[in-house]
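WARN no homologs supplied; continuing
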Amino acid sequence: MTPEELKQKAEDTLGRIEKFYGFVPLVNQVLSNDPKVFLPFVELNKEAFFSKGALSVKVRELTAISAATALGAEHCLPIHIDMAKKHGASREEVLESMMIGSLMCMTRAQSFAFRAWKKAFEEE
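OK structure emitted
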């Protein structure tokens, strides 16, 4: 593909993203400046969230909510919550996914902190 064709494909893809979500997420806005990076990124996202696989789209979105909660991805959370709701997730399922992500974040912090604590006090 020529650079012009890549640029046009990136613009068309941005248009589809905006139609799908009602806006273009910032990550997509920035990455679209380099179509060689942006277009594979979009394909990876499509495969991860919407391809036929073992997990339903709802479960994938709930997983994304859990991960976004653990990572503190505050701008991703609203998008994945909306998508999970569109795919049938209940209020309780979304909250439970957030609680699992929160717990994983907490235990990750405890894991490295408690190892440092143990090492510091083993010699006493």
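The mean pLDDT is 95.
OK
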